[in-house]
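DM from R.C. (forwarded with permission)

"hey, sorry to bug you on a friday — could you get me a structure for this? deadline for the figure draft is monday and I only need the backbone to look sensible"
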Amino acid sequence: MPYKILKKVSLGNSGTLFEMDILAPLIAKKAYAGNFILMRINETGERIPLTIADYDRVKGVITLVIQVVGKSTLLLSHQNEGDEILDVVGPLGNKIHIEKYEHPIIIIGGGVGIAPCYPQAKELTQAGNKIISILGARTKDLIFWRERMADVSEKVIICTNDGSEGIEGFVTEPLRNIISKDKISLAIAIGPMIMMKNVAKLTSGIEELPRVKTFVSLNTIMIDGTGMCGGCRFPAKDGQIHFACVEGPDVDGHIVNFDILLNREKRFAEFEKKSYDIYKRECKNLKIG
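My reply, with the result:
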């Protein structure tokens, strides 16, 4: 059954970020923070994982945020309201564990990772927690959902690499300042692999800072989303192999061997660029986009 796009809006001024509402009543009914879907745009498309950024059980709608980084996300950005997606499977993965913590929770979102931070902040706030959100990106045009995050946070701190908004620098700077002064029950980091690595390193108890329990979200290669294909496996520091799709996507950031995952991210870079360039040429010839 195809899934209709009900809304599509551009986020920021970068031209690479889009918010989409998709009619998927059965998925919306069961969705929670932490869940993701697998999508196939058309019969020749690849299966891509996207984290559920929001859900409305009454309207039967799930919200996704897409950043154009390759062929499939570029193709998805060319879909419009009223168009249909061939396959959407979910909700997959584990919902986050919700409880009332004694001290505040820090939620760190980097780039498009801000989107999956929102439902986590919302559900944890509903459980009575105090949330401090740190949102980071290369430039202010890649920061989005400021108001949404403010609605579910006691405080929102914005960082940009170029200093165009908020604090100039990386999300680890305000994070270091907070955990050096205040007691924190939990840190959650979602975004680029290098950002999550640096957050997990900072909260691991180095530099005489207190150790803070930390979860990161691993959106690795996923094909079937049920742990059978093995594409999402990731190594832990003790040599054990884990599977992001069935054990995560949110996992203990202190056990992840980020160096191996960072190298793995480069494995298909050449093929991804080739596919992206071919599709862009086809779009130009067909006057798409």
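R.C.: lifesaver. The two ends are 26 Å apart (CA to CA).
me: no worries. Residues 269-286 form the longest helix (18 residues).
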